[in-house]
Amino acid sequence: MPITRAEAARLARRTGMPVDDFSVNNDGVRTLLNNAHTRACVFLLTDTADLNGEGMCSVYDIRPKGCQTYPYVLNERDEAVLDEGCPHRDAFDAPADDVATSLLNLEERIVQEGSAD
């Protein structure tokens, strides 16, 4: 999940973790890491790799914008769609009209930050 610098800083402040412990910078785009054991986000409190296993987001109240809008993602035509990789995509309605705008704004911020590095 790509995150902005501001989101990374907020997560670091709240969790007390260094940014590099929960994310990696790939070509200027900071992305959340997954737990090696569970293959889920490092902030998901779970002890299983089962896709249907119980879990709770430990940073829910400050979760990044991409997490807030997931499983809605942009396709190659910049349209909001349900992520094909989401195992629970059938539980969600089609994206609302404003989701694409929100995701495009987020993508633009992340791209601008990456090009500034």
Description:
This protein has 117 residues and is an alpha+beta fold. It has helices at residues 5-15, 19-22, 65-69, 97-116; strands at 2-3, 23-26, 29-32, 44-45, 56-57, 72-74, 80-82. The protein has one domain. It contains 4 helices and 7 strands; from the N terminus they run βααββββαββα. Strands 1-3-2 form a 3-stranded antiparallel beta sheet. Strands 4-5 form a two-stranded antiparallel ribbon. Strands 6-7 form a two-stranded antiparallel sheet. A hairpin with a 2-residue loop joins strand 2 (23-26) and strand 3 (29-32).
**Structurally, how many domains make up the residues?**
1
Main sheet summary: 3 strands, antiparallel
Poorly predicted runs: none
| Mean pLDDT level | 94
Helix content: 25-40%
The radius of gyration computed from the alpha-carbon positions, rounded to a whole number of angstroms, is 15 Å
Q: Reading side by side through the largest sheet, how are the strands ordered?
A: 1-3-2
Query: What gross morphology would you assign?
Result: globular
Say how many strands there are.
7
Summed up, the helix count is 4
Give the percentage of residues in beta strands: 15-25%
Order of helices and strands: EHHEEEEHEEH
Structural class: alpha+beta
Q: In angstroms, what separates the terminal alpha carbons?
A: 19 Å
